[in-house]
Design goal:
Layout: H1 3-22, H2 29-52, H3 56-74, H4 81-98, H5 100-122, H6 125-131, H7 134-141, H8 146-149, H9 156-177, H10 183-205, H11 209-242, H12 249-281, H13 288-315
Helix pairs in contact: 1-2, 1-3, 2-3, 4-12, 4-13, 5-10, 5-11, 9-10, 9-11, 9-12, 10-11, 11-12, 11-13, 12-13
């Protein structure tokens, strides 16, 4: 290829593309079409030059021109309030709904494990002795003891923020570490259920189970539901590594991983609510029935949000993943 002749033949097109890219005003429809056409031609020219006569200076100029044109054609999409509304109204609840076959069994099994652990600890003094000395156990479980003062030991706002941060981190770890075949998720779940079972067992053995439930249930129902959702989704992600289904493993992990990241953001908001309840409602002077009632309302509101709003969005095709236009192109795979 004669490079000088090629440049002379196409320089006007490159210059015109440069002029269109420098326009400060909005392009007309005809100008936009012209920009796309010139972008495609220039990209082809660049490819020809790189393969036939790779002049460094010309390749550099055309590479920069093509990059600018690609940015102008594809655009850099900015998040808007519409995206936030769509995420909260459709994407997040649909993603939680689609994972229900994982997190609902996870919640049921984990709750049974916590109750059995609590019963075992509460009915076996020898097991309690391995947890702490008798004097320490009495200090934990007595009226006004450490189990009760824990919720009022710090200012409500800072306590709520601390609780929210810790729980959000635990949920995020479940979602992210699920890719390691779900094994870290099982460990996090067991640790949480063990802590819950220890409190349940010690307080029941001291005859103060009603106090324990009055302290845990207001915030614990929503908090544990969020943890179970995160754990179930993490386990689902781990299973995707083992069995991606009809999709390639890379595509399956990308799709489920993007949905999991979105769920981490949504669950952080849910845990913010449970943290606020734990910081302001649990240690309040409200009657036990009122505090538990607030927790029940919050839990029912979340479940309604997931199974009604999320179910409707999921049946309409919402998955919690990015819009198709925002995903990387993928090659279809055989079922």
């Amino acid at each position: 290829m004669d490079l000088d002749v090629f440049v002379s033949a196409h320089r006007a097109e490159w210059d015109r593309l440069d002029v269109l890219l420098r326009r400060q005003r909005r392009l007309s429809g005809a100008e936009a079409d012209e920009l796309v056409t010139l972008y495609q031609r220039t990209a082809t020219h660049l490819s020809l030059i790189q393969s036939s006569a790779p002049d460094p200076q010309l390749v550099g100029r055309l590479s920069q021109l093509v990059a600018r044109a690609r940015s102008a054609v594809t655009g850099a999409r900015r998040a808007s309030w519409r995206d936030v509304v769509r995420f909260l109204g459709q994407g997040f609840p649909a993603a939680v709904y689609r994972s229900r076959h994982w997190w609902v069994p996870t919640a049921l099994i984990s709750t049974v494990v916590a109750i059995l652990l609590g019963w075992w600890i509460g009915s076996h003094p020898d097991v309690q002795a391995t947890i702490a000395a008798p004097s320490q156990l009495r200090e934990l479980t007595r009226p006004g003891g450490e189990y009760e003062t824990y919720y009022s030991s710090h200012p409500a706002a800072s306590f709520a923020a601390q609780v929210w941060t810790n729980n959000a981190q635990a949920a995020a770890m479940c979602l992210v570490l699920g890719v390691f075949l779900g094994l870290p998720v099982l460990y996090i779940l067991l640790e949480n259920m063990l802590n819950l079972g220890v409190g349940f067992g010690l307080m029941s053995s001291a005859g103060r189970l009603d106090t324990f439930l009055g302290l845990v249930l207001p915030h614990g129902m929503l908090e544990l539901t969020a943890v179970f959702v995160a754990a179930g989704t993490g386990l689902r992600l781990g299973w995707t590594v083992i069995d991606p289904g009809p999709r390639s493993r890379r595509v399956a992990l990308a799709e489920e991983g993007r949905a999991a990241v979105g769920m981490a953001i949504g669950l952080a908001l849910v845990l913010f609510v449970s943290g606020a309840i734990e910081g302001f409602v649990t240690p309040s002077g409200l009657p036990t029935w009122a505090r538990i009632g607030i927790g029940v309302v919050a839990e029912l509101a979340f479940l309604t949000y997931v199974f009604v709003l999320g179910g409707r969005a999921a049946r309409a095709g919402e998955t919690g993943d990015l819009d198709e236009a925002e995903r990387s192109a993928s090659v279809p795979t055989a079922a």
